[in-house]
Automatic annotation (TrEMBL):
The chain crosses the membrane at residues 5-27. Belongs to the glycosyl hydrolase 10 (cellulase F) family. Residues 348-677 form the GH10 domain. The lineage of its organism: Bacteria, Bacillati, Bacillota, Bacillota incertae sedis, Caldicellulosiruptorales. This is Beta-xylanase. InterPro entries: CenC_carb-bd, Galactose-bd-like_sf, GH, GH10, GH10_AS, GH10_dom. GO terms for molecular function: endo-1,4-beta-xylanase activity. Keywords: Carbohydrate metabolism, Glycosidase, Hydrolase, Membrane, Polysaccharide degradation, Repeat, Transmembrane, Transmembrane helix.
Length: 699
């Protein structure tokens, strides 16, 4: 995937020296408010249910009193011979048009292996019985697990409307159901909120950030309701609005932040969310990146991101800040929400370990940020599922360099320490790149570009310092990253490296990396390697380096792909070509699978079943391909732990779902395709549903 859009976001990191991906937490009791409880329609089988439940299809259901999820009773669904043999709930008078509804419930089955379950709306529109699958989840055997689904009905006065909770493929396994709940999306999501400010009280606890900045609760613009917060009087890019959060934080927890922003300036304006953090043992503030976007005027735009609160060290100060790259821009903010998704659904710690599935084939790795190391949940998932990690940004030149010969390895050391403590391999990324290298690196003290010999000397010192520091601790280095441009006659990217040194810097980098750490395997790493011209340039470069005795041990194929392109066959052509170079190892270094093609105008608010299955099928085919070439492919690394932390959400500025785990730390269909593909349906359609029985209304 092309990365030209990424350059914009990288420049922001250079300006403000962001180190961590993030969101902040307010802490409140994890109990539902009276208003939330009143807005929820529950079916818990305790004898006071307001909705009718019944056996759908040929199933038998029975209320039982053993080991319920909540309370004393639950329902058992038995005598199954079809996917539709299930429990049904009459919701015709509850799930009305014009609102988005969430249906949730707990299911426990006694199958011998995981089973895919569905929540499905079945209705009679006067032309027959039809259905809409609302959501699916793979559930482990003999364990109560939550399944939920969203739906915005568009049906006009259906004769019947029921919700069925049933296996998607399995036709015979008995299962139990408990605590079915129906509520609006707003109420459902509010259960995760630990802080929300809509400014509807016409007061504010926010503070101006910077001299001359003024803030006020304002009624001229609002996202929802009547009020928002107006920020004006700014004269520096860091000026804006802030709120202290220190006393509310829970160390080691992960949070989401969401807010809406509006401005009236012409053209796009950059808005950013950061956290100003000071630890007790540090002299300087750190600025942690949450999220940012280029926003057009005269329209509310949502900005969101994730944050992991540091789990070690004492936090002295932590402030959530909202500002703009335009130093004089005035703007409004509204509906600021900070939430903890694990209040809605607990992380699925019972998932089979991904690394165990492929332990006889290749390492399975993940690229992470420093924030994941600070999160207890993320750390547990990393250790369970992966035996290799890659620091996404934290070993790149701009992350470790503070000035000429001035290095800060605090964060990079944390990655190495984590890997060694947990017996996980670590890939170093990256020593030489045209992006995320400070501009001063190429210049002398007067701001003039260095001569070739001077720049090569500086490069040698950098490689010796970084690779030498971790000698024997890092099993592979991406020595040179993305140096090929297939549009150039000779194939070399016209970067500052090339413009000063020519292609010689590439060979020198490998020589010096090998001298600094003779044990590490050294890789050339690049994207779009499926393009025939590009892969031939890379192939010829590596082959020539090998012929010269340059210590290059492998090629890294990034594999930033999407569900449509490139095809698995095109990826195989690339693998086949590089596998012809004797002794060359191949690693898949940055794998993710976007829902979008580059430049696509498509927008997915929620992933559809069709897209999730399409993605799962391609992941399944890819890993089968990697297994086919396991004699040369020794490592496969996913570029991110879960969907909501993916870099692609920043690039496309819209929801994307490119990875194996969702925001609730649960395995997606793509994950299960890699564990046991037989669990998944081979067709997106279910058989025709049976008739809806005549339902007697509750008195």
């Amino acid at each position: 995937m092309k990365k030209k859009v990424l350059k914009l976001f990288v420049s922001v990191f250079v300006i403000v020296n962001f180190l961590i991906t993030g969101i902040i937490s307010f802490v409140q009791p994890e109990t539902k408010t009276a208003a939330q409880t009143a807005a929820i329609t529950s079916v818990n089988f305790e004898g006071k249910d307001k909705l009718v439940f019944f056996a759908y299809g040929n199933a038998r259901i029975a209320v039982k009193q053993n080991n319920a999820k909540e309370g004393k009773k639950h329902v058992s669904v038995e005598n199954r011979k079809s996917v539709w043999d299930s429990i049904g709930i009459d919701v015709k008078d509850v799930m009305t048009r014009g609102k988005t509804w969430v249906v949730s419930g707990y299911v426990r089955h006694n199958g011998k292996k995981p089973i895919l379950f569905s929540i499905t709306a079945v209705y009679n529109d006067g032309k027959g019985i039809k259905y809409i699958q609302l959501g699916e989840r793979v559930l482990m055997p003999n364990k109560w697990e939550k399944i939920s689904a969203k739906w915005k009905p568009t049906l006009k006065n259906p004769a019947d409307l029921i919700i069925a909770i049933h296996p998607t493929v399995d036709k015979t396994t008995s299962y139990d159901v408990d605590n079915i709940q129906i509520m609006t999306e707003e109420v459902y999501m509010s259960q995760a909120d630990v802080f929300k400010d809509t400014f509807e009280s016409n007061t504010t606890v926010w503070q101006p950030r910077g001299d001359g900045v003024k803030i006020k609760v304002d009624s001229t613009k609002s996202h929802n309701g009547d009020w928002s917060l107006y920020v004006t009087g700014r004269s520096a890019f860091w000026h804006g609005v802030q709120i202290p959060l220190t006393k509310y934080l829970v160390p080691g927890k992960s949070y989401k932040i969401s807010m809406w922003v509006y401005h009236t300036s012409m053209g796009k304006q950059g808005i950013m969310l950061t956290v100003q953090r000071k630890m007790a043992d540090e002299q300087q503030y750190r600025y942690d990146w949450i999220g940012g976007s280029q926003i057009e005027g005269d329209g509310w735009v949502q900005i969101r991101g994730n944050y992991n609160v540091p789990k070690s060290g004492k936090i002295e100060e932590l402030v959530l800040c909202i500002s703009s790259w335009n130093p004089t821009l005035s703007f409004w903010i509204d509906d600021v929400t900070i939430s903890d998704p694990t209040r809605i659904q607990q992380p699925n710690y019972a998932l089979p370990a991904l690394k165990e599935k492929y332990k006889n084939d290749f390492k399975v790795g993940v690229a992470i940020g420093y924030g994941e190391l600070m999160s207890d949940i993320d750390s547990q998932f990393i250790v369970k599922h992966f035996n290799s990690i890659t620091p996404g940004n934290e070993m790149k030149p701009e992350s470790v360099l503070r000035g000429p010969d001035n290095y800060d390895f605090t964060v990079a050391d944390a990655f190495v320490d984590f890997a060694r403590k947990n017996n996980i391999g670590i890939r170093g990324h990256t020593l030489v790149w045209h992006n995320q290298t400070p501009d001063w690196f190429f210049k002398d003290s007067n701001g003039n570009l260095l001569k070739k010999d001077e720049l090569l000397k500086r490069l040698k010192n950098h490689i010796y310092t970084v690779a030498g520091r971790y000698k024997g601790k890092i099993y592979a280095w991406d020595v040179v990253n993305e140096a090929i441009d297939e549009t150039q006659p000779d194939g070399f990217r016209r970067s500052t490296w090339y413009n000063i040194c020519g292609p010689e810097y590439i060979e020198k980098a490998f020589i010096w990396a090998h001298e600094a750490d003779p044990q590490a395997k050294l890789f050339y790493n690049d994207y779009n390697t499926e393009i025939p011209q590009k892969r031939m340039f890379i192939y010829n470069m590596i082959k020539n380096m090998k012929a010269k005795g340059i210590p290059i041990h492998g090629v890294g194929l990034q594999c930033h792909i999407n569900v449509d392109n490139p095809s698995v066959d095109e990826i195989e052509e690339t693998i086949k070509l590089f596998s012809t170079i004797p002794g060359l190892e191949i690693q898949i270094t940055e794998l993710d699978m976007s829902f979008y093609q580059w430049g696509s105008s498509v927008y997915y608010i929620e992933p559809s079943k069709e897209m999730l299955l399409k993605q799962a099928k391609k992941y399944y085919e890819l890993f089968n391909l990697f297994r086919k070439y396991k004699n040369v492919i020794k490592s496969v690394t996913l570029w991110g732990l879960k969907d909501d932390n993916s870099w692609l959400r920043g690039v496309f500025n819209k929801p994307d779902f490119p990875l194996l785990f969702d925001e609730y730390y649960d395995g997606k269909l793509a994950f299960w395709a890699l564990i046991d593909n037989s669990i998944l349906p081979q067709d997106t359609k279910l058989p025709a549903p049976p008739a809806i029985p005549k339902i007697k209304a509750k008195k």
